[in-house]
Amino acid sequence: MDWLDQIKWDDKGLVPVIAQENASGDVLMFAWMNREALQKTAELGRAVYFSRSRSKLWFKGEESGHVQTVHDIRLDCDNDVVLLKVTQQGHEPGIACHTGRHSCFYQRHENGEWKSVDPVLKDPETIYK
Fold first, then answer.
1. CATH number of the domain that residue 75 is part of
2. What class of enzyme is it (predicted)?
3. Which residues are annotated as a binding site for Zn(2+)?
4. pLDDT by residue, tens only, the chain of 129 residues
């Protein structure tokens, strides 16, 4: 059986993907992949996602230069979530979030509200043209 056939794709042919920084263990982002995106990720050794809003493949870093080099691709016990262990390229420390932060998970619940707890490392206006 093809390794891609072992994945439980949703009704739109997608699987959720978590990108985790290889060195620190930080969870950087959540995205989606279709079959082609996961195949290309495995072939190229860099993260390729599927943009649901644009209905097309999204090569992480294609606009920002913040490429994710993939070290490991893992599948969870239910075969319905993929974990990528990556090195975030393009800025030190790596920027994974379109807000210019290291991680997309920069908001923490405190006393009934969401607080931004991680700094903007680079102004998004200077990242995206």
1. 3.10.20.810
2. hydrolase
3. 77, 97, 104
4. 799 999 999 999 999 999 999 999 999 999 999 999 999 999 999 999 999 999 999 999 888 888 999 999 999 999 999 999 999 987 677 899 999 999 999 999 999 999 999 999 988 888 876
Residue 9 lies in a domain: yes
Domains of the chain: total: 1
User: Quick check: is 37 in a domain?
Assistant: yes
- For the annotated binding site for Mg(2+), the residues are 76, 78, 80
Range of the domain at 49: 3-91
Annotated binding site, which residues?
A: 76-78, 80, 97, 104
3-state secondary structure the chain: CCHHHHCCCCCCCEEEEEEEECCCCCEEEEEEEEHHHHHHHHHHCECEEEECCCCEEEECCCCCCCCEEEEEEEECCCCCCEEEEEEECCCCCCCCCCCCCCCCCCEEEECCEEEECCCCCCCHHHHCC
Could you tell me if residue 97 is inside a domain?
A: no
